Amino acid sequence: MIEWVDKEKVFKDPVHDYIYVKDRLIWDLINTRAFQRLRRVKQLGTSFLTYHGAEHSRFTHSLGTYETMRKVLSHFERNFGWPTDDRVRLLALCAALLHDIGHGPFSHTIERVFQFHHETWTQRILIDDPEVTNILQRVDDDFPQDVADVIAKKDKFPLVVKLISSQLDVDRMDYLLRDAMNTGVTYGTFELERLIRVMRPVGNDVVVKKSGMKTVEQYILARYFMYSQVYLHPVTVSSDVLLRHVVARVKTLWDREESVFLPAELKPFLSRKAEQISVAEYLELDESVMNYTMQRWTRADDPILRDLSDRFVNRHLFGVVDTRELKEVERQTIRELFRNCGLDPDYYLSFQTATTGGYHMYHQGITLVDESGRDLGDISKHSSLVRSLSPESKFRIFCPKEVLRGEGKYKPIRGWLDAMKE
Amino acid sequence: MIEWVDKEKVFKDPVHDYIYVKDRLIWDLINTRAFQRLRRVKQLGTSFLTYHGAEHSRFTHSLGTYETMRKVLSHFERNFGWPTDDRVRLLALCAALLHDIGHGPFSHTIERVFQFHHETWTQRILIDDPEVTNILQRVDDDFPQDVADVIAKKDKFPLVVKLISSQLDVDRMDYLLRDAMNTGVTYGTFELERLIRVMRPVGNDVVVKKSGMKTVEQYILARYFMYSQVYLHPVTVSSDVLLRHVVARVKTLWDREESVFLPAELKPFLSRKAEQISVAEYLELDESVMNYTMQRWTRADDPILRDLSDRFVNRHLFGVVDTRELKEVERQTIRELFRNCGLDPDYYLSFQTATTGGYHMYHQGITLVDESGRDLGDISKHSSLVRSLSPESKFRIFCPKEVLRGEGKYKPIRGWLDAMKE
Amino acid sequence: MIEWVDKEKVFKDPVHDYIYVKDRLIWDLINTRAFQRLRRVKQLGTSFLTYHGAEHSRFTHSLGTYETMRKVLSHFERNFGWPTDDRVRLLALCAALLHDIGHGPFSHTIERVFQFHHETWTQRILIDDPEVTNILQRVDDDFPQDVADVIAKKDKFPLVVKLISSQLDVDRMDYLLRDAMNTGVTYGTFELERLIRVMRPVGNDVVVKKSGMKTVEQYILARYFMYSQVYLHPVTVSSDVLLRHVVARVKTLWDREESVFLPAELKPFLSRKAEQISVAEYLELDESVMNYTMQRWTRADDPILRDLSDRFVNRHLFGVVDTRELKEVERQTIRELFRNCGLDPDYYLSFQTATTGGYHMYHQGITLVDESGRDLGDISKHSSLVRSLSPESKFRIFCPKEVLRGEGKYKPIRGWLDAMKE
Amino acid sequence: MIEWVDKEKVFKDPVHDYIYVKDRLIWDLINTRAFQRLRRVKQLGTSFLTYHGAEHSRFTHSLGTYETMRKVLSHFERNFGWPTDDRVRLLALCAALLHDIGHGPFSHTIERVFQFHHETWTQRILIDDPEVTNILQRVDDDFPQDVADVIAKKDKFPLVVKLISSQLDVDRMDYLLRDAMNTGVTYGTFELERLIRVMRPVGNDVVVKKSGMKTVEQYILARYFMYSQVYLHPVTVSSDVLLRHVVARVKTLWDREESVFLPAELKPFLSRKAEQISVAEYLELDESVMNYTMQRWTRADDPILRDLSDRFVNRHLFGVVDTRELKEVERQTIRELFRNCGLDPDYYLSFQTATTGGYHMYHQGITLVDESGRDLGDISKHSSLVRSLSPESKFRIFCPKEVLRGEGKYKPIRGWLDAMKE
């Protein structure tokens, strides 16, 4: 079943130094159009507008996730004799490599409006893209569906699912290190080799030696810091708000049948439901299309679309005010104030709640074991640090900076905002 | 004349840790459209197809060049009392920040076909872009032209020119470190702080203490290694060849008045001369436009354009054969062989000479001085290592891999190539 | 008052890249015998027996602490105009440079037995070492005492004291990064430049901008991880136990007037009280003396001293058992069991409680302020992460590994230990 | 024959992240007295007096050399099926681990005076130290001698010899990276993984793929830069001169039967020939002994010994003058001038020639091969860079700085030196 490449292949990588490929299957998957397309989807969406170094793509992250899985499997094979069969090994490697293949442009920001639910699309591509599916079927006919089921967290291969998607998965291990390196921060740093060394497969679970608890804490904290300092940075959220408003405006114009520039690649997403869009159509859409289109919209007839697009493309972002949590009636009041100043609050105002995920035990906690393998319960039982990580919410209002400065007609808004400040 | 920002501003950077801005002028230049556009031009063009990490933009490099200049000036001010006036300091900082502002999409690869001579455009933008020029004029009316003259290496401000563009310039210092970091190689590594410390301004020249000669050698070698291992990597050159052929094909189709998809942003470059293109038109063009357009061309009617674009977008690149230098008659022979196989050699064959620049003393050598400041002549007089760096040329043929494998009708080509191998 | 060195001097440093010296005072202090002696005292005592890379000295750390202070002062001067006078600047720099000058060999481990209370000795050296004191007096006659008072945390220069010794001091900033680098772990990593940037001097306190809270958390966590993973690593504690037992045995032999090799440098510490030891005598003692002496003791007549020294020098360390906290009566029982096996529990058994310091608000908490400088109270009010860091204690028993394996006569001990296990 | 440790053991390392041990043989060798003693011998001798970070020991380097060999063997096994038998694998690993076991204190500096010829001692220890030899004999009776023969470059196992000691050996690979990291310079940086990947075993030689030539160049240059910037740094050479003079003075005093402090460990080296010194005696000597003894000598009766020791211990080093090569008669003249000033030139003057080794093809050049394995000859045939590295000599005079300043009676010396300056 297993076919090797002629010689061990490598990719030079800034995080892992080298990424090693010896299975022809993996090599061929990397060379598909669907996978190469990930070069045109940024790993961190609009974060490059905050941290200029965050220009890396999902392509590099996907290779890194594969390599991390390869390292975990090598440790498991050397020290615990798992996996015993090559099909499971390949399943784990393919799922790691392809876990993000369904991501569209700026998915986390605009997928709801544009029907990009990326996990669904990942599964569709795995079983419906002629090129990808064909390669996977070389293992056997059920293989594409099995990879898709791992992505869908179905429980046929629970250990593989754990490694792909849990509190302790190879996806997160790679992105924390990679995003930290590219943004230039150390917040996402943790001891990767040591973390892998304290993991072990036990039954259907991946558990951790008690003596490795602090290493797991460091890794959990890396995520905590990256969320607050990078992923939910107010400037990034502000960029997301703008992008979402741009897209919402286009949708409104389209629904009203007003004239607006739309490339062929984008039309299906406005006119049809996700189920009616083919895998081939989906794969046409990437950030080259979106970026080009937004640049065109900076010259749109519609003044709102033109203005919002210009703000996004040329980085004249909305400003932010930290507030306490607002009641609905308060939100109505400020919306009214915006309307009075001639600003449509649907496009020039946004209430955002940014929630840093704490540590969740349910479904996917991290179990500790002692030297003899005895179950010691979830890490949260043992670590006050982990328990302290309950979700934290921040309430923020985003709107144009000229409004925040309270110039001229915006003075009443400024006054109201000051009163709401945290 | 000098206006500070309210508080010292910083950008987090993966190479320099922080980039410090205290001049309002710099801050405002960064926020112009023309400068933000550099986020949409990759620093290393097509290199990401070789080193997947090379996804960084000219925006990040331009900030880094500014920061490197800031460090050099700080050293010069602390230890040698230069520059004495703030206008020269600002001139150096602005020239560093803006030195790449005229780069178009994949400039090094396609600027000849598409009229992007980037240094000319940099100068035009500096004196003709309303936003940029206006900000520069805050210093005084001559300031935009002075910055442009520095870029053009005119000799009014020889020390600033030296620092921007010579064998020992801040541009190169930043890009070597940044390209190395992003590709994940150490070839471009050198001792930045020490290099700066051994530099000193003397008259119209920037010279180096003899005791720092080895540090300069390390820096010169960093360039040597980056050229051979990264910039002139055969896979990158192969990508460049494809891209150039795509663009050449479009030009041919346009000249023949055949139907081909062309966005508004690209038309001026096919129909008019550079001088007739406005700065505003020029700034519309970036890699979003080019990438989107090439994706469209993967569905073009013309089979050659369709095929070449598909190869580029989906990374099915040409293969390479190292040869000895070929005579014109040999080139004709192989072109004929291609034609006989039904492959148009204009698009499916390329002879490339990749030349690693050696060290050039003329005009911009590096002068050593002893402790007392006495001129010891050019570094090449003292360093056999530097003298050994004469330009090296590699001769390579690029064509489709199926041809190189010599399958079926391509067998004769294969045979001919084998005979030419180095 | 201020005298500069001829040219800016630098030291190449693996943590800070360069350490900059421009004051002749600092330069001359570095060249004193008392400061050079710090090269012969390891920064992490016995940790090199756990992490082989931990071979760095207090000399390198002291230079790094100076450099960190220099960076903090540069930020404070640039952005807040403090300190306004050069004497305070020098006071801060000297205190940072000299804060560890009183450390003796393996101080943290054996200072109680050998009268090395290092902070007291630091103060004595500052005001009593002819070389050091003379240099400091160049500023003025009170200067040596002022530096000593800063070390003693007296409140004449509260801001300087804060920077030298608090939850947010330059000592800790340097040692976390340096110890992490040398041991090869990332646990001590944090954002040094950013941490410095969010600090500000307000009245008598150094406070932190609220927006920098997460950066402070990262730094506090760095300490937490370094304590549990490095400083209190059981193998290091085990090495400390052995060393302490070696020294205790020598003291007993000396008190019993038994013959034991003792170099002249060590005798004062056994025969006199600290107050009766001169600064000159104190400075004779360093790790060269201690290490040489211990090697000699591996050939001592006394079998216990010989055995313990051999275990330390050749790294045959005691093993460890994690237990619950033991009552005095339990401790007596196990001591008795050791005695029954012919092992003197004073030398072959040790009960250790390793306590990771949590975050303490009292005296030296970290105050947050908002943008306008308003006091928001201690960071522990705002951060559940910081609050979760209450001190944690681990109870451990150390004794020879052959005992832990429970071979032969040691079987009963093994049984008893198993029952006590955590 | 092969016995594994219970679980894969690891050492945390700042250069390689982790060092992996699975053979019980290796584990047991690390725990011998002879190997642990390497913790008390600094890797770079007196270099810490120039680069304060250079405090690392031969212990850490020896572990790193082992790990580098392990990586090379893993690559060779995976891709070329060599070594086929476990005895050769163990031979290579043991030779790498133990290659420096015969180093004495400051060996490179003082081994001639004190009979430490370290390679000879390495071989003697391998076959004569009861602990080490016993462990090696577990493989078979000939094994200790075979390891010793590899160290002696005998040709029974030519491939292993190549990997241990040639232009492309694992010793150098580790020390370049480690010394660079600890001194804080980048000069020794090179692409370790890639270098290993382009190496291949062919017959009795380790050769390199032509496509890897630049990587080899980078590695050869790393050595070139480390020699000139670190290993032959004038301050380090100055420290070496002092140390050698200290030892020479002691030898003179001993020969004259004058009273001088001498610890038991040192006496054999003054009174007997190397052949008459036992392995046990040899292993007693390390840098703790030497450092302690030198501190004692700072209080010696002999004024020359006292002064020189004090200069070394407290870092009041000799200064340096770069000269042209001096004739014997010129040397005599300056020696006479020193004598006239009351300075014994045997102890206060030193003529040093520091020669940076170029690249030598003879015996141990680096052979390139093409893709098909065809021999292309030595790298120096192909690389002008490598050819440019002919040995370079620097001529330097070392003497007390007060002499160099030419104060008072030293004025004539100063004048003479100025005339000799390069």
Automatic annotation (TrEMBL), chains A, B, C, D:
Span of domain HD/PDEase: 54-185
Gene3D superfamilies tied to this protein: Hypothetical protein af1432
InterPro entries in the cross-refs: dGTPase-like, HD/PDEase_dom, HD_assoc_2, HD_domain
Gene Ontology biological process terms in this record: dGTP catabolic process
Any Pfam family hit: HD_assoc_2
Signal peptide positions on this chain: none
One term of GO molecular function: dGTPase activity
Superkingdom field: Bacteria
Name of this chain's protein: HD/PDEase domain-containing protein
